[in-house]
Design a protein that fits this description.
This protein has 119 residues and is an alpha+beta fold. 31% of the residues lie in helices and 14% in strands.
């Protein structure tokens, strides 16, 4: 066995964290759009306030009021990235549904779908 060691690097990696989105603030939203250069959703609100969601999972941290505001507004995108932008709105709908009714409603849909069940 050979042990290999190397000197530590002086380079740092910056990890962007999602800026906390206060409850209900998206009521003042002007628009939201898919930014294809960064692969993120940009939300622009009143008073030069803006937020970026870096991943679809970031939608899980939003409260119900903010999710409803996103659901009521169509996401903007270029035609080339329209399908990706629509995936953001689809996840908003799912997270909002879970927020209102919980995960149990999905179990009910799966049981009634006629899909195969394991033995």
């Amino acid at each position: 066995m050979k042990i290999v060691s190397w000197p530590p690097t002086d380079k740092e990696k910056t990890i962007l964290l999602v800026k906390k989105i206060p409850n209900g603030i998206l009521k003042t939203m002007y628009f939201w759009a898919y930014d294809e250069t960064l692969g993120q959703a940009l939300i622009v609100c009143d008073g030069d306030v803006s937020f970026r969601l870096t991943d679809l999972v970031d939608l899980l941290i939003l409260d119900r009021e903010n999710l409803e505001a996103l659901a009521q507004n169509q996401i903007r995108s270029t035609e080339k990235y329209e399908d990706i932008a629509k995936s953001w709105t689809a996840v908003v709908v799912v997270v909002l549904h879970i927020s209102k009714k919980g995960f149990g409603s999905y179990k009910d849909k799966m049981d009634g779908s006629g899909g195969s069940r394991g033995s």
